[in-house]
Design brief:
Distance between the termini: 27 Å
Number of strands: 2
Largest sheet: 2 strands, antiparallel
Structural class: mainly alpha
Shape: elongated
Strand order of the largest sheet: 1-2
Radius of gyration: 19 Å
Number of helices: 11
Order of helices and strands: HHHEEHHHHHHHH
Amino acid sequence: MSGYANWVALRTIVTKEVLRFSRIWIQTILPPVITMGLYFIIFGGLIGSRIGEMEGIRYMDFIVPGLIMMAVITNAYSNVVSSFYSAKFQRHLEEMLVSPVPNYLIILGFVAGGVCRGLAVGVAVTLISMIFSPLAIHNLAVTLSVVVLTATLFALAGLINGVFARSFDDISIVPTFILTPLTYLGGVFYSITLLPEFWQGASMLNPILYMVNAFRYGFLGVADIGLATSYAIIIGFVLVLYGVALFLLNKGVGIRN
């Protein structure tokens, strides 16, 4: 395929993915915004007023970046896993795979759709957070780059989950038993410096901790973990998951059988 044909193919897939979730925004955008609004009221407003400060920062301001990132992660993941599995279930994924469209463009198209939904929810949650906390961004470049990389990472993870899923139940197993616990234990609501030494070490094995901390640095200028370490881990995971996704599509795993 020529470069222009590749561009048309990518644009078509991305447009389809964006229209898929934007047409039903009441089901895809609004629920996480309401959920995060409740987190702001309960944890930031009611409980946070008793906690006081975390690392010298008002508790409400401290949890805002983590809650935004949590919304981005879950929505980027769920968008791609549900869309990719639906394409398998409805048998129109085969039409893309037998077309001249390269597999890497198919991956980029699905991932771009997941990133768009993650960012759309992230922007909506940020707007809601401004009711409770003044918007202050310490480093805009870090904030934007970390949120895009993180959304890309979990969109790729969602695609891999969609490849292996054999039923609609399978697409909820990973979010329920792996993604949600890792997110809650990823430093969204607390600083790992509050944990005993053993649990601090155990927390370092959680990749979401690095994303939340880097994103918090972009907002507030404070983090428990060095920025270079966080970027290295996030980019490393993106490259590995992209390689795995491309390998699975090239081999037809979960599709040909």
